[in-house]
C-alpha cells in the first residue's frame, strides 16, 4: 500500500487547522452542517481515488487506508463513514458481492475464501453495527471499469488477439503493465465477464479465458472447437520450446567438440 509521501497530495494537506477538521469524525447528522460534511466527504473520496490510480489498484480496505493517510502519527477518524457512503452511492462494492454478481462459476475461483468475509458484515449489520471491518475489501467501480477497458485494449493489440482463448498465466504476463497484481486482474476479468466480453473456464486444472472477438456483441460459450484449437496451440508452443531447447543443446555440443579439437 502506498504512503502519503509517495503520492501527490492536495495543498491543504500542509494546513494543520484544515487537516484537524478533515481528520475528525463526521457528525452523525449530516443536516447539522451539510457544507462541512460534504466538503470532508469529497476530500476523502477524491484522495482515495487518487491513491488507487497511483497504485494501479481497484481494491481498497479500511486497514490499508488508515495506514496510507496517516499524518503526523494521526489516523483519519472518518474513513469508515467515507467507505459506507461510497458504498451507498454505488461508487464501491464489497469484493465478494461484486464477484457474486457475475452469473457463472468464476466466483469459486476468483474469490475463494473471501466469500466467508461478507458473513461478518451481514452479522454486524443485523446487530445494528455501523462499523466497517478493517480487512473488508471493496472494489472501486469506476476504476475496475477502466482497468477492464485497458485489459481488453491490450489483448486486442497483442499477438494473442488471433487466439480467442488465452491461458490465465499468459494473461498475467500480458497485463503486467496495467494490473498491479493478480487480484486487480481478476477484478478486471470479472468486470469483462459482467459485460459479456470474456468467459472463464477450467481446462485440465488450468484457468483459461475466452475473449469476445471484434464484430461480436458478446462472447460465445466455450465449445469443443475452442478447446480443440486451444490444445493445438498449446501443443505447437510446447513443440517450439522443445525444438529451441534441442537447438541450444546441439549448439553446446558443437562448441564443446570444437573446443576439444
Automatic annotation (TrEMBL):
Residues 144-212 form the CHMP7 winged helix domain. It comes from the Eukaryota. It holds the Pfam family WHD_CHMP7_1st. InterPro entries: CHMP7_WHD (IPR057471). This is Charged multivesicular body protein 7. The lineage of its organism: Eukaryota, Metazoa, Chordata, Craniata, Vertebrata.
